[in-house]
Design brief:
This protein has helices at 20-23, 28-45, 49-58, 65-76, 96-106, 112-115, 122-132, 135-147, 269-303, 319-332, and strands spanning 151-155, 172-176, 179-189, 197-205, 217-223, 229-234, 248-258. By secondary structure, it is α+β, with helices and mostly antiparallel strands. It folds into three domains: 8-119, Acyl-CoA dehydrogenase/oxidase, N-terminal domain (Butyryl-Coa Dehydrogenase, subunit A, domain 1); 151-267, Butyryl-CoA Dehydrogenase, subunit A, domain 2; 304-334. The strands form two sheets. It has a four-stranded antiparallel beta sheet, with no helix packed on it. A three-stranded mixed beta sheet has the order 1-4-5. Helix 5 packs across helix 9 (269-303). It is globular.
Length: 334
Amino acid sequence: MSTSTNNDFANTIPFTHYPPWVLSKLRPQAIDMIRRVHAWVETECIPAEQIMKHQVSQNRWATPALMHDLRRKAKSQSLWNIFLPNHFPESPGLTNLEYACCAEIMGRVYWAAQTMNCHAPETGNIELLAKYCNEAQKSKWLRPLLNGDFSSAYSMTEPDRASSDATNIGCRITKEGDEYVINGRKLYGNALWNDEMKLYILMACSDPENLDPWRRHTMLLVPSDSKGLTMKRNLTIMGYDHAPEGHGEYVYENVRVPEENVILGEGRPFEIAQGRLGPGRIHHCMRLIGQAERAYELALLRCKDPRKKPRGKFIGDFDSNIERLASMSSRSMR
């Protein structure tokens, strides 16, 4: 019987808050996967939060041993690369809507998606490599990312340009023989300080005089150990350094990469970027929704914590906090 006519699962966790139109579109295979992801996050990730935090504190820029353990375990349970669309042989066959439900659950723990190789920027970079790279590039870079052998970053934003309009990007690449030479500054690519970071996907200007601003740039594969590529510092965001991944400020100084590292061809990065960003927008927003829902749950628990009773009352019994909780609840229901 199809899920559109049999919604018995709708009254079970984690489906209780899904609107009817979503429930009607979830196929049996998706229902099973959503349940398995929920069980994984609740039984493997949430209980391990303090252990993960401690391990990161011991070595800020190395992936914790616990993360490696969880990734091996998730892979053994077929909770690995579940974001992959249908054109991948390894794809579980979820629609974007069905995977969005999984992404919401992953958001309940900041690093849960990483245990399943479903985290940013890996998901977008994997889809980019799969859609636009040739077979030699896929063999060298895509397969290891699918396996979780190393990590990658997207190197686009710049400190000296209004990069929200990517036609402004000014980092220069020039062709010299069978190589491209790169010079410029970039922001926010994952930290080079983590030894597992092996690849930067760079967007830079190759033809500044082109009359078509959408054809002035090119996308390149840049190995992290390229001579002349330097990470100057890690950038904090709202006071957090986001170790062990981070967000670096980079200088490319006469960095040389072979011409076979060009993706798709010169002048085509906007085509590539849009193909990368489409699904990722849904993945990001759903994880953030899951994060917000968990924050609301923790606020409710704190409000009724018997250890925290100023002036003999629960925190949640004060009028101002009741108002705050109501405001949080209304926002989460929109």
